Amino acid sequence: MRTFSLARSLHFHKGGMMKRAILLFLLFILMPSACLMVWYYLKTSAILERDMSSSMLQTLKQAEYNLSARLDQVANISDGLIGNPDIRAYLDASSQPSYRQYEIFQTMENSISSAERNRDIRQIRMFVEPGLLFSDEGIHFFPLSAVENTDWYRAAMARNGAIYWRSTFSQPYLASDPADVISAVRILHDPRNYDRTAGMLSIDVPEANLRSIIDKIQFTPSQQVWITDRAGKIVSHHDPSLIGQQGRLTPEQLLTAYQQQEGFFAVEGHPNAMVLFRHIPSADFMIVAEVPMNEVSGESLALTRISAVILLAVFSMLFIFILVVAFAYAAERVNRRVRELILTLKREGVDNLETGRQGNFQDLELGVARMVQTVHDLTSNFYQEKIRARDAQLKALQAQINPHFLYNTLDSIHWMAIRRNADEISHMIESLSTYFRQSLNKGRDVVLLEEELLLIRSYMHIQNTRNDNGIQLDVDIHPEALACYIPKMILQPLVENAVLHGIHQKRPKHGAIRIAADVQDSWLRIQVSDDGVGIPGDRIAALLTPPMSDTDVQSFGLYNVHERVKLISQNDPDSGVAITSIVGVGTQVSIAMKAVTTLSGG
Q1: What is the dotted CATH code of the domain comprising 1-336?
Q2: Which of 28, 170, 460, 529 is deepest in the core (most CB within 10 A)?
Q3: What CATH fold (topology level) applies to the domain 400-594?
Q4: Which of 70, 105, 35 is nearest to 184 (CA)?
């Protein structure tokens, strides 16, 4: 009975194998191949469109470089006028007699006329206090009260001295027709009271200068190229009648575009149209080009797609033929093995069946099950080892920070004791004791931000004791941020860099350090800023990479903090340290990490 059951389950005749082969061919070869052909067709089309879009983006990039160069030249002229001593003297001349104001005005008029010789400038206008002589001259000078209620005046005030670029508007001029211009506007501070606005400087740039650059962009006959502002209004267009109107981009598309330097996307409702954009950072404008893709690709794209489909079809059919032949051969071998098993069972019985021979399906299933279990065990072990390695790396990075400051502080106490017999030493030792107590912190790897600030205050007390209280520490921490846990000793290296490499490089060694923190969308964001000498732009990127030598203390400290923040945030791409700096103005170091208010395991 057992022999009969086994023979029946393994019985395959030639016709049955053919039917099964056809069914398997349809389910596992023909249908997947058809899907693969469709996918390949769509993928090829997308690659061709992407390559063409990339080429057109290069054209927009060159146009943006040309525009930025000309706008930067205007910005440089504005900087020169802001720093012109004659203009500062005029703004502060309200108390001077009329003849003295006239002398200053004549000198300043020559400076402005000289700046207007630049081909990119239509006219320079200054809005000043009505009490100044020639404040209503009407060519270069106008009363400030005439523009104090305008939107662009409020926008310029919000920039606090930085340039605000006004979108295109029609400006009337004496002895000439009105002209469409954009303006670089900035406030003029009172020379004696920086917090008071003494005037407004406006440099008018003809819109035609912008149009001459975008008119050189040639993609297709039906293209539309324009410059837009952040509100979506057209700043420049080859059709002047459209200037000032709302562009064709939706608010959502504008928001998405302004979050990127450049890019492209398809026009909703027009699958054959593509919108490309490039940000002009110096003016917060954007070059936008709407291009019909069918005009760009023409017959070449269609022929390329047809050729790709034909080539794919040929290879697919060849692949299918090989698979069919291989399957038929394998099926024949299986069928022959089954016939041998049946013959053995009929002739000698089940006891003589060679279950260990190749082709035993039950042994194969058992082997696969064992293999899956082994892979699972190895994966689990690898994951645990990776966690232990990450924890070890975190502890190793953390252990490298403490000694450097310890040696410097003890050395300072030593020399202070030699130089003077002062009670300051006891205060300094007390601050040092607080510093050690917070840095060691009973061996904990994470501390509250509030506890870390105690360490920073102790550190700054030590530094100010050494340097005659020349550094002011300002702390602006949101209460919610104080309750967040952070890796121990991540703020001290940043403050130390601000002191040693920022403020102490100035003469005199006086300055301010500001620490701010808040919680936004479950992220803790901390900023440490100073008004030191700043960091050159080519140096910033190297500070967050592994230092080339152990003597590069500044690079080591910042890289160490960056790595620890990423480790504690499980290498989230949005976490880490970012540096912004302006030489001669100061540096800001920003930290972003996930906000943690409770610790696992109590």
Answers
A1: 3.30.450.20
A2: 529
A3: Heat Shock Protein 90 (3.30.565)
A4: 70
Per DSSP, what are the bridge partners of residue 263?
Answer: 277
β-pair partners for 277: 263, 288
Distance CA 552, CA 177 (A): 62
DSSP string, 238-255: SSGGGTTSB-SS-HHHHH
* Phi, psi values for residue 359, rounded to 5°: 110, 0
CA 376 to chain centre: 38
pLDDT of residue 567: 85
Q: Do residues 232 and 246 lie in contact, with contact meaning Cβ atoms separated by under 8 Å?
A: yes
Q: Do the beta carbons of residue 276 and residue 61 sit within 8 Å?
A: no
- Residue 297, pLDDT > 80, answer no
3-class secondary-structure state, position 154: helix
Q: In whole angstroms, what is the distance from residue 470 CA to residue 464 CA?
A: 6
Residue 355 has pLDDT above 50, yes or no: no
Identity of the residue numbered 314: V
pLDDT at 11 over 50: no
pLDDT of 50 > 60? The answer is yes
Give CA–CA dist 568/463, Å, rounded: 29
Q: What percent of the chain lies above the pLDDT cut of 70?
A: 71
Q: Which residues of 22-35 are buried (b: 16+ CB within 10 A; e: fewer)?
A: eeebeeebeeebee
The rounded percent of the chain whose pLDDT value lies above 90 is: 31
Q: Which of 261, 320, 448 is nearest to 34 (CA)?
A: 320
Q: Between 501 and 466, where is the model more confident?
A: 501
CA distances from 386 to 375, 390, 446, 573, 599 (A): 16, 6, 20, 19, 21
Query: Tokens 């039906």 belong to which residue?
Result: 222
Question: 495, 514 in Cβ contact below 8 A?
Answer: no
Instruction: Output the pLDDT for position 326.
Output: 73
The yes-or-no verdict on residue 3 having pLDDT over 50 is no
At residue 185, what is the residue type? V
Element (H, E) at 402: helix 402-419
Rounded-to-integer distance, Cα 481 and Cα 519, Å: 6
Mean pLDDT of 161-172: 93
pLDDT of residue 102: 85
Tokens of 325: 């032949």
Lookup result for tokens 């390695």: 389
- Which residues lie below 8 Å from residue 381, measured CB to CB, with a gap of 6+? none
HEC readout, 340-364: HHHHHHHHHCHHHCCCCCCCCHHHH
In the chain, where the domains are located: 1-336, 400-594
The pLDDT confidence band at residue 95, using thresholds 50, 70 and 90, is confident
DSSP 216: T
Mean per-residue pLDDT for 467-478? 90
Alpha carbons within 13 A on the beta-carbon side of 116: 15
Q: What is the pLDDT of residues 128-145, one digit of tens each?
A: 988 887 888 888 889 999
